[in-house]
Amino acid sequence: MAQESREDLANRSAQRHASRTGTTYAAFIRHLCEVGNLEPAVAECAAIAVLSALERRIRPEESRQLEAQLPRKLVEFLEVSGARTSAPRRFGKGAFLESVADDLRMDPAKVEPVVRAVLAALQDQISEGEAADVAAQLPEDLRALWQPAH
Predict the structure, then answer these.
(1) Cα dist. 92→58, 139, 142 in Å?
(2) 2-146, CATH topology level
(3) pTM to 2 decimals?
């Protein structure tokens, strides 16, 4: 009976964790939809595409620090996408936008507002210190995309 109770507790704990994980991710996607005036399916794909490109540009240790402040489900999608690299790649705004446009199958000339929306929504999820740490690793043209346009 005690074993059965432990299993029940473990199952309930796992269900609560999954529920919280899904809830925080859903809240993030709703926020991104509002910020970028995007449909939910587009918002989900855009979040992964932009964050994947960002993680290819910053140091792995900074990626881990950034991910620690993001919804767990979003991070799980990134793990599947293979965005992490052993060393940051050097590229600027043009290559960043092109990468996201390719992932989203969008016209590169029309992707910048989507990128800006995702970056704004991401910054709403993280501390100012973490946002500053990410900005410090970006070249000037990408930093201009990262900085909020408020």
Answers:
(1) 12, 7, 6
(2) Globin-like (1.10.490)
(3) 0.81
Q: What is the pLDDT of residues 16-59, one digit of tens each?
A: 555 555 688 999 999 999 999 999 999 999 999 999 999 999 99
Domain range summary for the chain, segments of one domain joined by +: 2-146
CA 94, CA 97: separation in Å to the nearest integer?
5
For residue 61, give both structure tokens: 């240790």
Q: Is the pLDDT of residue 134 over 50?
A: yes
pLDDT band at 150; cut points 50, 70, 90: very low
3-state SS, residue 105 = coil
User: In 3-state terms, the chain is what percent helix, strand and coil (to 5)?
Assistant: 75, 0, 25
HEC secondary structure over 111-127: CHHHHHHHHHHHHHHCC
